[in-house]
Design a protein that fits this description.
Layout lengths: L1 E5 L2 H11 L3 E3 L2 E4 L2 E5 L5 E3 L2 H4 L20 E3 L3 H16 L2 E5 L4 H13 L6 E3 L7 H9 L2 E2 L4 H29 L12 H17 L4 E9 L2 E5 L7 H12 L3 E13 L7 H12 L3 H13 L21 H7 L4 H8 L34 H16 L5 E12 L2 E12 L16 H6 L11 E2 L2 E8 L6 E2 H9 L8 H7 L7 H13 L3 E4 L2 E4 L1 H9 L3 H4 L1 H15 L5 H21 L11 H17 L16 E3 L3 E4 L2 H4 L2 E3 L1 E2 L2 E2 L2 H10 L1 E6 L10 E6 L5 E3 L1
Parallel strand pairs: 1-4, 1-7, 7-8
Antiparallel strand pairs: 2-3, 3-4, 5-6, 8-9, 10-11, 10-16, 11-14, 12-13, 12-15, 13-14, 17-19, 18-19, 20-21, 21-22, 23-24, 25-26, 26-27
């Protein structure tokens, strides 16, 4: 009998169906010579300090650093986990061969190896490695099973990452809490979390220290085109007014007129970070929610494996591209021009040298069904249009640069015209973003000027103010994490810096969520703001190693080298042990500071005052304001409550959530307070949760936790 172990029940069902293992048993499926079972993500974790000795139960400064002789693993303490592990353990002892069907990435490899290690597996192990969950991909994967040994370095890198995070997280958190927390606060330190917070704090300090200054610029209008003076900004109104008087008495003259034709390269396919950035910019979705939506689309077989960090496709995929495009019938108007001739095989799309474990995120041949959520449809649309756009011709543009003078003062203007839209055709119907001042200047239609022509003009003064640096949004923070804090707009350069980024694409969303949970950062509209607690924590940490994105990026590079077999996992561990030992001595011997915990007390009081008044005022659904658009009232239908302008707003809450019908009172709590009390009786949750609190996410999706 061959035993297949998947990472979750839904994936196990897909695999079992393809293999013909259709007989349900307690905790697994059986048939056709196969047993197919599953984990629930992590069943095992690294042992905690107290597992190595009872003395570590209490946080004692003088017992640090805690460095186990060898790191052990244990089952997560949960009845469901324990029961499922017993099933796996029994099947491992009875089978002839194990097929590791875990998530095809570093974390998935680690999850499965720990479980097999805990189950004392001594059977031969093969690895299923697939990039989508379609029936065709699963069949193809089982025809090309690989020895587990091929993925040993992937496991070693995942294990080294977990041990590194344990060594630094456990020791530094206890160290700083006992030294500076004053028994009032746990000061959470993390290998990736802390440098990420440091970037936010640094930006916050730059904004707070910024002193706004007024400036004046000279402009003039000639033949309905605005020209800007090509001189430094003027610091006083007096100088600007003198300049204006000078312009009024001198004629305008064209000095040079140049048109250059150029091309705008196609956008790249999405990796996970790129998709999270785009979804945040376009729809305001958090990185964490975008990951949930794309994971759901993957499990529904509509897109390929999402936790990737490459924007390229394998060359072997080229023959399948036409078939995928043909299956995307809802985009047939955009696709039909592509299918009239062979699909271009560009190095900007197909490059084996740029693909590691997986290729970029693309649609599969399985078109989306009607039962997708609104958010899933929008994420699919982003992926589908990007996939179509990369095969269109480049966009041809003309850049016009005009130089002029008024007396001795030089002026210039520029404009950009699209000659052939190329790939921009794919996005022609998308809602346009509000153009910036620079974009508005570029959008000027510039007539043909002749060198030497002269005439009257309309000079003016433009008053402006210097702007502070912009706060991070989730989109810009993800990009900064990807490049270890370096601001890089060029896609090719960013691709080169990815190996030195901090965190992995699959973990960055969780790092940001952790900073929210710890109350080190907060969100104001789309902006991420470091709280006083977050700022004070970073100020307390004097050691640059803990908060430097560049140094953390170097650790990430070493982990990638472990994955490729160029670096020893034990050497990485030894380096971190040395760092933690030195850090402990430095902090213990150093002076203590007083860490003041800042609490947002006013907001809590405000909420308590506000909620009862809302309840008294709003007696029926029709009188309630939609919490999402805040412009229309709600209305009650046969199966759901939603915004009266649902078509544009999209807010809707079904009476039936994860198989449980909610009462009017429970629904009102959800809409008014953003969450219900603890409820039981859920039967269709994808992670098999049967009880918990239903809440609305910032993007107004339903969460059970």
């Amino acid at each position: 009998m061959k035993l297949c172990i998947a990472e979750k029940p839904s994936v196990a069902r897909d695999i079992a169906k393809v293999l013909g293992a259709t007989m349900p048993k307690q905790g697994y499926m059986e048939g056709n010579g196969y047993c197919v079972t599953w984990t629930f993500g992590h069943l095992c974790t690294l042992k905690e300090p107290h597992d190595y000795g009872p003395q570590y139960k209490s946080w004692n400064l003088f017992l640090l650093p805690i460095i186990p002789q060898s790191f052990g693993i244990k089952l997560i303490s949960n009845k469901g986990v324990e029961n499922q592990f017993k099933v796996i353990e029994k099947l491992v002892s009875e089978c002839d061969e194990v097929i590791n069907c875990g998530d095809a990435g570093q974390e998935g490899e680690l999850i499965q190896r720990w479980v097999l290690q805990k189950a004392k597996c001594d059977k031969p192990v093969q690895r299923l490695w697939i990039s989508s969950l379609t029936e065709e991909a699963i069949k193809e994967g089982f025809q090309k099973l690989k020895p587990a040994e091929d993925y040993k370095n992937l496991y070693l890198a995942g294990n080294a990452r977990a041990i590194g995070d344990w060594l630094l997280g456990i020791n530094a958190t206890r160290l700083f809490t006992k030294k500076f927390g004053g028994n009032k606060a746990v000061l959470s330190i993390g290998r990736v979390q802390t440098p990420t917070l440091a970037m936010l704090v640094q930006r916050q300090k730059e904004i707070d220290a910024f002193s706004t200054e007024e400036y004046w610029e000279l402009k003039t209008k000639y033949r309905d085109v605005i020209f800007n003076a090509a001189i430094d900004r003027l610091k006083t109104l007096d100088r600007a007014e003198k300049g204006l008087e000078y312009l009024k008495i001198n004629p305008f003259e064209i000095v040079s007129f140049e048109i250059k034709e150029g091309k705008e390269k196609n956008p790249r396919l999405f990796d996970l970070t790129g998709l999270q950035v785009e979804a945040n910019k376009k729809y305001g979705y958090s990185a964490d929610n975008t990951l949930k939506y794309i994971q759901s689309l993957y499990e529904k077989k509509h897109v390929t494996y999402p936790r990737v960090d490459t924007t390229y496709l394998s060359e072997s995929l080229y023959p399948k591209i036409s078939g995928i495009l043909q299956s995307m019938v809802i985009y047939k108007d955009l696709i039909s021009p592509l299918l009239e001739q062979p699909i271009p095989k560009s190095k900007a799309v197909f490059d084996d040298a740029k693909v590691t474990d997986h290729h970029a995120i693309i649609p599969t041949e399985v078109p989306p069904s009607q039962n997708l959520t609104r958010e899933e449809k929008l994420i699919y649309d982003l992926i589908a249009k990007r996939f179509i756009a990369v095969f269109y011709p480049e966009c041809k543009i003309s850049n016009t640069l005009v130089e002029a003078k008024v007396g001795t003062i030089p002026f210039k203007t520029s404009g950009k015209q699209i000659l052939e839209p190329g790939w921009r055709t794919v996005y022609a119907k998308d809602a346009k973003e509000e153009p910036s001042e620079k974009d508005k200047d570029e959008e000027q239609t510039i007539p043909e000027f002749k060198v030497g022509e002269s005439g009257t003009h309309e000079p003016m003064i433009h008053q402006g103010k210097t702007s502070p640096p912009k706060p991070y949004t989730e989109a810009t923070l993800l990009r900064a994490m990807e490049t270890a804090g370096k601001q890089v707009d060029d896609e090719e350069l960013r691709e080169m810096l990815k190996n030195n980024g901090i965190g992995r694409p699959s973990t960055r969303a969780n790092i940001i969520e952790t900073l929210f949970k710890r109350k080190y950062i907060e969100k104001k509209r789309k902006n991420l703001i470091a709280t006083q607690t977050g700022i004070q924590l970073i100020d307390t940490i004097e050691d640059e190693l803990l908060k430097s994105p560049e140094l953390t990026g170097e650790w990430e590079l070493k982990l990638r080298k472990i994955e490729s077999g160029e670096y020893e996992a034990n050497q990485f561990k030894d380096e971190l042990i040395q760092m933690v030992t030195e850090l402990t001595k430095k902090v213990v011997d150093g002076k203590a500071k007083v860490f003041t915990l800042h609490e947002e007390k006013e907001e809590v009081k405000e909420k308590k005052k506000r909620e009862p008044s809302v309840k008294k005022e709003l007696q029926t659904w029709e009188e309630m304001q939609c919490p999402k658009c805040k412009q229309n009232n709600l209305m009650k239908g046969k199966t759901a409550v939603g915004c009266s302008d649902f078509k544009n707003c999209g807010f809707k809450v079904s009476f039936d959530i994860f198989g449980k019908k909610l009462s009017d009172k429970q629904l009102m709590d959800l809409v008014l307070k953003g969450k219900t009390s603890k409820l039981k009786g859920f039967t269709t949750h994808p992670e098999s949760l049967t009880e918990g609190i239903i809440s609305l996410s910032p993007e107004f999706t339903i969460i059970l936790s």
